[in-house]
Amino acid sequence: MDAQGRWKPVRSLPYEVLHRKGQYHRLPLLAQEGDSQTLQADLDHGWNDYPRGFVAFLQPGEVPPGGKGRAEYLAKYVTSPPISVRRIERYDGQRVSYWYRDHKTHSLQQETVPVLTFLGRRAQHILPPGFQRIRSYGLHANACYARHREALAALAQTTRPPADPGSYRVRPRPPFAQRFEKAFGKDPLVCPQCGDTMPRELISHPR
Questions:
Q1: Which of 22, 65, 200, 205 has the most CB atoms less than 10 A away?
Q2: Which residues, listed in sequence order, are joined to residue 96 by a DSSP beta bridge?
Q3: For residue 177, what is the DSSP state?
Q4: Residue 31: CB partners within 8 Å, gap ≥ 6?
Q5: Does pTM surpass 0.70?
């Protein structure tokens, strides 16, 4: 926001600002929870030992290698449970046996734990009420969804389907000889010596 109180679009925020802002907003909130000596000592530790703010574990620059894989791994938790029912092998009322794949060794591991331990591990994946898990952008953004929907509805009323129903169908790809002749101006199956049509035996590629 500029000096006149107007919002200005930015592509990114400096990470140093995020570090200090996180410290500036979190520590006063913790101070409101109580005035115990232990809490006050922790607050002093947060101010004095971190003059540059709290580390947000962010790295400037391009997306690090493997970022796509991490995104796909985290995206499945948006709508899927943290563990599939088929991974639970046994439950006797007191203990639960299940298997998982170790991310370091990529091997299957079996584990048997008390039922409360098992539930505790699953409960940490439950998000707090009202937590926004999915944010939509573009045409589906909440801020402009209604406006775009009205525009698309008006466009659908004024657009008529083509007279020929077959004009919008996905037609099969033309034969190789036809595409070659269209691109290079000559029939690849005609012999340049005698002019006879040659049978096609094989199409190869340098790769």
A1: 22
A2: 91, 113
A3: H
A4: 39, 40, 43
A5: no
User: Helix 37-48 and helix 15-31: axis angle, to 10°?
Assistant: 160
Contact 20/55 with Cβ under 8 angstroms? no
What residue type is 56 in one-letter code? A
Q: What is the phi/psi pair of residue 190, to 5°?
A: -95, 125
Helix (H, G, I), strand (E, B) or coil at 99: strand
In order of 47, 50, 96, 103, 141, the CA distances from 39 in angstroms are 13, 16, 38, 37, 41
pLDDT, tens only, 68-99: 777 777 777 777 788 888 899 999 999 999 99
Looking at the chain, list the stretches that DSSP marks H as alpha helix, in order from N- to C-terminal side: 15-31, 37-48, 67-75, 115-123, 145-158, 176-184
| Spatial distance between the Cα atoms of 57 and 6, rounded to a whole number of angstroms | 30
Q: Count Cβ atoms within 10 A of the Cβ of residue 54 and give its class: 0-12 exposed, 13-18 middle, 19 or more buried.
A: middle
Tokens 């046994």, residue located: 90
43-to-7, 46, 55 alpha-carbon distances in Å: 33, 5, 16
